[in-house]
């Protein structure tokens, strides 16, 4: 049985979990952070849709045209979840210090698609205001979404359903700082449910890197071939992020990566970690930057297109979770993402399984793509730029050591540049170009750590892939 989880992370090593709040701490210590999960496993029974208050470990919730479901057709992470029809799921209590809310959701059984809203109250439930945009429920398995909470007030939340088709709600997770203001029995510390937040998440969020993270420098490092745009932490439009499982340059005005660089070998793709799907905002950007949320692409007609794909990081839940940070995403035309791009990603992983290792750099540029809703230059109310082109280069070498020294004029270098539109050919090989072609389009200096004489050969040819 899952339990209500509270973690106290003081950024120092603690034995067990303290119930001190920020006010209780000795001067100079950083604030307590908490994670609380309502998973509905220990809720009181409710088997009808008639509105009623239900006691749960976090507090009392009102289920209006909703019940606690445990059928095989209920989507759930455990034995129970809430089944919501045309009503509301509302907290009857407040939580203090919340900065992120995570919710798992999906369609009940074979019910048709529908929509729902997340609302928040700062006046004890007298009034509620919508958080983000409407959520289109078209998921046949539980999906995790995150919502940033921008208030220091006491808050309570409500999930409001439209239409009569049913949905399931599970694992509502509160993350915040200070004393949450909820009375509960302190549980034995345990890891966060990895399907909810990807282990201890790179939460709203930095990176929780494990021993499987790539080295900072040298063989197998993510930036072995150089920094294509001379990105630094002092340049908001060319902002350097070392996410440990990959390195990137991020544009705070476009709210997308300029480029992302990573290393691929057998250890990174043959692990047991499952796809986490824990899309979430990243907190390590300059304070003035827009924090792209997991719902920011909602109804845009574009996929949340990974730069580093989930399948390239299966060595741990931490590694896979890192690929679901929204700073790793671009608005990508669905047929592009699920067509040539997926095919190329699979091709490179196949090359690894054949005994190779691969160094990859991917990026995007330009303005305007064509998704399911037609053409667009931006999404999310103009806050996220839609690129016109998406490119990737991959240096493929036999697995080994001293990698830079083994790159020669005969080394296989794959480079492609695709238009960000739905009307693309599924065969990625049709979009092969030279590295220099991409350099001319972007102004970047790719593979700059190689000797110039080697660059002048491998960057100027289009690999035949014989």
What is the element layout, followed by pairings?
Layout lengths: L32 E6 L13 E5 L2 E11 L11 E11 L6 E10 L6 E8 L7 E9 L5 E6 L7 E7 L4 E11 L16 H4 L41 E4 L4 E5 L4 E9 L1 H4 L33 E4 L10 H6 L6 E4 L1 H20 L2 E10 L3 E3 L2 E3 L1 E2 L4 E2 L3 E10 L13 E8 L15 H8 L9 H7 L8
Antiparallel strand pairs: 1-10, 2-3, 3-4, 4-9, 4-10, 5-8, 5-10, 6-7, 6-9, 11-12, 12-13, 13-16, 14-15, 16-21, 17-18, 19-20, 21-22
Please give a structural write-up.
Helices cover 11% and strands 32% of the residues. It is mainly β and 466 residues long. Strands 1, 2, 3, 4, 5, 6, 7, 8, 9 and 10 form a ten-stranded antiparallel β-sheet that branches. Strands 11-12-13-16-21-22 form a six-stranded antiparallel β-sheet, with helices on both faces. The longest helix is centred in the last third of the chain and has 20 residues, at 334-353. It is elongated and about 75 Å long. The relative contact order is 0.10.
Compact description:
The protein is mainly beta and 466 residues long.
Between the first and last Cα atoms, what is the distance in angstroms? Answer: 54 Å
- Radius of gyration, CA atoms, in whole angstroms: 23 Å
- Catalogue the unreliable spans: 1-31, 183-204
The chain-level mean pLDDT equals 86
* Number of strand elements: 22
Overall geometric form:
elongated
Share in helix: 10-25%
Number of helices: 6
What oligomeric state do the depicted chains represent?
Answer: single chain
Biggest sheet record: 10 strands, antiparallel
| Residue share in β-strands | 25-35%
Question: Which structural class do you get from the secondary structure elements?
Answer: mainly beta
Q: What series of H and E elements makes up the topology?
A: EEEEEEEEEEHEEEHEHEHEEEEEEEHH
